[in-house]
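A further point concerns the way the authors explain their paired sequence and structure data. An entry of this sort, consisting of the sequence and the corresponding C-alpha cells, reads as follows:
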Amino acid sequence: MAEAIRHDRVSPLLAVRDLRVDYGTRRALHGVGFDLARGETLALVGESGSGKSTLARALAGLLPASGGSARFDGVELVGLRPRGWRPLRRRLQLVFQDPSSSLDPRLRVGTIVAEPLAIHRSVPRPRRGAKVAELLAQVGLAQGLAARWPHQLSGGERQRVALARALATEPELLILDEPVSSLDVSVQAQILNLLASLREARGLGYLLIAHHLGVVRQLADRVAVLFAGRLVEEAPGDLLFATPLHPYTRALLAAAPRPVAGQLPRALGAAAGEAPAAAEGCAYRLRCPIAAERCAREVPALRELGAGRRAACHYPGEGP
C-alpha cells in the first residue's frame, strides 16, 4: 500500500513514492516511500531479508523497479535509461558492504580512485595524480598507498579507498550499504568518524543501510524500519530509540545485544520469533504480541503520528 508523506522539507534531494521491486513472482519491496533532505542521513534498519539492500540497489539503478517513483533532485530514476544515468552517477554513488569484492584486484589503488575521474572526464589527465593524492588524504590514507594493490591493504584501508573512489565525482548523496559490517570492531569507529567528518565538510546526504545500532545512533538523523519489504516505522533517531511505536521496532531493539564499553553493538538479529511474514493483513501479525482480529483483515497504513513520526500499525505504542 502506498503511504502519504507530509512534505515538511522543501525540495528533498531524494523523494521515493510507492516503490516496488519484484524478483520473479515474489515481491521484495511493497510500496516503500520516504524523503531524504540535502545533507541528511536516513538509516534503514531491519533483519536480513527485510529489503534494505534491494532498496539500495534499486535506487542506484542496479535493480529494475517494478513500479512507483524515485526522484533524485527532481529526476525520475525508475525506468531511466543508461544514457540518463550517466550524469547522475557523478551525483549519486553507492558504497558496497565488502570492499574486498568491490575493488578490482587487477588495478592499483591510484588507478581505482582515478577511474571515475577518467570516466566522467572531470579532471584532466595531467592533474589526476594530484587529485588522487588529495582524495586519499581526505579519507586518511597516505599518498604512497596509491601504488599498492587492494590485497596489500587492511579491511579498513580498502573501505577508505572505496570511499575515496565514491567521493571522486563530488557526489551529493552516498548510499552506504553496511559500510562497516565487514570490518573489525577496532576499525569501525574510525570509519564512522570519517563518514561523519566527510558529511560535515561536504554537506553530503547519506542513505545508510545498517545492522549495527551503534552505526545508526552515531550517524542517523532519522531511522526507517523495514519488515518483509514494507516500511513499518519512521522517526527521528532519538525518538525511535527512546519510544519505538511499532511492535517490530521494539522487538528489534530488544533483540540487539547490549553494547560493551568502547565497542559498537553487534548486528541486529531476528526479532521475536521465527514466524514468516503473514500473506494477508498485517505482515508482522504472526510474530506480534498485540495482534488482534483486525490485524488479520486489514493491512495497516503508514500513518503520520506527529513529531515527524510514522508507523504502520493499528495499535501504535501499545503492548510490551
